[in-house]
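Predict structure. Chain length: 85.
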Amino acid sequence: MLINEQTSGKLLSLLPQIPRQSRSEEGLSPPDVKTVQLLNQTATTKLSEIVRRGISGEKGWQGYDSAELIAARELLDRDASPIIR
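Prediction complete.
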């Protein structure tokens, strides 16, 4: 459940170090930063929805392991920006 967000976050930290013209064995160049940021935002939004609805026990959202939901919430909280008032 946490793989997409962790992968996109790791990729975002590595992309600035990879030359845009470099190619892998398959001949594909790495994605641009904007694409990975969008992927990261989408994964975070979906994970947040799963955690919120799963923890609340909303109908149709049961079946998730409660330990995984708690771990996902902690991951989201760790990556969240603190609110300064």
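Summary: The chain is about 60% helix and 0% strand.
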